[in-house]
Amino acid sequence: NAGVTQTPKFRVLKTGQSMTLLCAQDMNHEYMYWYRQDPGMGLRLIHYSVGEGTTAKGEVPDGYNVSRLKKQNFLLGLESAAPSQTSVYFCASSYYRDRSYYNSPLHFGNGTRLTVT
Amino acid sequence: SQQGEEDPQALSIQEGENATMNCSYKTSINNLQWYRQNSGRGLVHLILIRSNEREKHSGRLRVTLDTSKKSSSLLITASRAADTASYFCATDVNTGTASKLTFGTGTRLQVTL
């Protein structure tokens, strides 16, 4: 049982280049999320998905796009990378909210460290 | 600004001592969760406390929640070197059509032998 797997682990991009970060989960979770973590800022939500074929914007969505074509995969794309997107990116997943509409605990991957020069 | 703010930002203690971290938040919550992050790794869920609960225990962890003060504390008893990590609180806020988890900036805990 691998949990949440992120690829790649590290990447260096030049300004203007594009790339896709891959996230896969094998827990049959409905919800999936992309966060970025920067020093002193905590984790900030970029985009999330509440089910296959659906996505929604989080707190800091600009410059990113996402797709959830299959329930187990959630892709994060950078169309034209900028130095401000240098960060550590985390994917997470969780079950449905319970009947009280509370968020269940998140399961995180180990992150992708992205540097944009 | 962050919904959850941890205090202190950094804490250094010796093995065997207790560690207390605090989290303050601004708006009403559904629940509050605590996570641990070891260096270079993803976050790991520790404990969830609902808004109608005041205290919860899990092994050496004790979490309290005071909704009147909009604050929570995480106590790690008899700390070990392996407890060295960053600890984050995350608040679950109902926005009407969905609920979202918002993370604080974390407390870095160093446990020395």
Q: Into which percent range does the helicity of residues of chain A fall?
A: under 10%
Over all CA atoms, what is the radius of gyration of chain B? 14 Å
Report the helical percentage of chain B: under 10%
What overall form of chain A do the CA principal axes indicate? globular
Q: Provide the gyration radius of chain A in Å.
A: 14 Å
Distance between the termini of chain A: 36 Å
Order of helices and strands of chain B: EEEEEEEEEEE
Characteristics:
heterodimer; A: 117 residues; mainly beta; 7-stranded mixed sheet; 0% helix; 52% strand; globular; B: 113 residues; 6-stranded mixed sheet; 5-stranded antiparallel sheet
Fold and architecture overview:
The complex is a heterodimer of chains A (117) and B (113). Chain A is mainly β and 117 residues long. Helix content of chain A is 0%, strand content 52%. Chain A has strands at 4-7, 10-13, 19-25, 31-38, 42-51, 54-57, 65-67, 73-78, 87-94, 107-108, 112-116. Chain B has no helices and eleven strands. With 113 residues, chain B is mostly beta strands. In chain B, strands 2, 4, 5, 9, 10 and 11 form a six-stranded mixed beta sheet that branches. In chain B, strands 1-3-8-7-6 form a five-stranded antiparallel beta sheet, with no helix packed on it. The mean pLDDT of chain B is 91. Chain A binds chain B through residues 4, 35, 40-45, 48, 50, 56, 58-59, 90, 92, 97, 100-103, 105-111, and chain B through 2, 4, 30-31, 33, 35, 40-45, 48, 50, 88, 90, 92, 94, 98-106.
